[in-house]
Amino acid sequence: MIPLKISKTQNLYLKLLESIQAKFLVIGGFAVKVYCPDRNTNDLDILLFRLDPALEKLALFFEKYNPLNDRSWKDVFLSENKRIPYPNESLTEVDFLTSIDGVDFQTFYANSAEVMAGDFIVRIPSLEDLITMKIISRNSGNCYESHIQDESDIQCLTNLLRLKNISGST
After folding, report:
1. Which of 29, 30, 159, 163 is the most interior residue, by most CB within 10 Å?
2. For residues 41 and 53, what is the distance between their CA atoms, to the nearest angstrom?
3. What are the residues facing 27 on neighbouring strands?
4. Max CA distance (Å), the chain
5. Is residue 166 helix, strand or coil?
C-alpha cells in the first residue's frame, strides 16, 4: 500500500483528530487510492465514530472557529448521516461524515488497515469493506459524475480483490 499525500489543511485536521484521540476512518477517494494508486482525488473524506466522546472536543473546536447560528456543532456531530464539508461546499478539502447507512463503524474499524497520510498513521477500510462503501455510495443517488467514479472505483477494487483471492494473499 502506498502512503497518502495530503494538503497542509488536511494534515492539520488529521493532527486535530489525533490530538483529541478521535476514532475515525479515512474513506472515499483517498482510501481507494491506497489500493488503486492511479485514482485521482483532492478531498479527504473522514468517517467519524459518532458515539466517540472525543467528538465533544472536535465540536468545541468548530464552535470556536466556525460557530453555527441555528444549532451546536455537538448536535451536528451526534446526528446520523451528516456530511460536513470544510471549508465550504464549493471548496472542499475535508469532508467529515457522521455515519453512513449500511456501515457499522465498529466492524469496519476492526477490519481496517493502517497507512501513512501526511505525518500521521490513519486507518482505512479493508478492501472488502471499501467495496461495500463504494456500492452504498453508488446507490445513494449521487450526481452522475460521482456515480461514474464509484463504478470505476468498484471495478478497480473488485479486480484487486479477485487477484488477492487467486493468489491467496491476505
Report:
1. 30
2. 30
3. 45
4. 55
5. helix
Alpha carbons 116 and 124: distance in angstroms, whole number: 10
Q: Cβ atoms within 10 A of the Cβ of 84, count?
A: 18
Find cell 501513512 and name the residue.
Answer: 116
Which of helix, strand or coil describes residue 126? coil
Backbone dihedral angles phi then psi of residue 121, each to the nearest 5 degrees: -90, 125
Residue with cell string 488536511: 10
The number of helix segments (H) and strand segments (E) in the chain equals 7, 6
| The three three-digit cell numbers of residue 18, written as one number | 489525533
